[in-house]
Amino acid sequence: MQGLKQFSIPFKGLNFEIHQFSFKVDDIFFQEFEDSPITSGSLISNLSFEKKPDHLILDFETLGTIKTECDRCTADINLPLTSNFSLIIKFDDDEREEDHIIYIAPESHEINVAQFIYEQIILSLPLMKIYDCDFDDPIPCNEEILNILDRKVEDETEEKINPLGDALKNLKITKSK
To answer: Which helix (H) or strand (E) holds 98?
Structure first.
């Protein structure tokens, strides 16, 4: 985590007001986190940092793209990502986390926000990573995979026709009295 020192904010010397910080999130950032599902990206995380006498309020806004594999066609895509979240940091001898409130020791003089930014990005990933590539030139889609998927859909449609159902349609039933 030595490569994340630029994400540390020494808040002890700051005035009681709102301060603005901007952090570049790139490939080097993601390499600092073991087993990260993201290895490449280009994002900016803007932080509105409000210092109050008894707590800190952090408002993050992160936007940019991450390099990932499309879940539909397996092509490498630059997936747009936007995320906002807030965090409150209070001072207490018992360091802990509860929902969006983090308690740190009263003698703390700085806080590293890299972990918060990382978790925000990971939680912002969509369940299905599909990119609307119709507007890109050249289109990054893997046409071979898309053709295979189209053939599979056609095959499944053909298989849905049940020959037994057709035979039953031709069956003539007469009522007996």
So the answer is: strand 96-98
Q: Are 42 and 62 a contacting pair, CB within 8 Å?
A: no
Pairing of strands 18-25, 96-98: unpaired
Q: Position of tokens 């940091």?
A: 89
The span from the CA of 57 to the CA of 49, in Å, is: 6
* The pLDDT of residue 121: 95
pTM of the model: 0.74
Q: What pLDDT digit, counting tens, does each position of 80-97 carry?
A: 899 999 999 999 999 999
Distance CA 31, CA 37 (A): 10
Rounded distance, CA 79 to CA 41, Å?
9
> Do strands 101-104 and 76-91 pair parallel, antiparallel, or not at all (unpaired)?
parallel
What radius of gyration, in Å, describes the C-alpha atoms of the chain?
27
Residues found in the chain: 177
User: In percent, how much of the chain has pLDDT > 90?
Assistant: 52
Contact 60, 75 (CB under 8 A): no
Looking at residue 88, its pLDDT comes to: 96
DSSP label at residue 31: H
Q: What are phi and psi of 124, to 5 degrees?
A: -85, -10
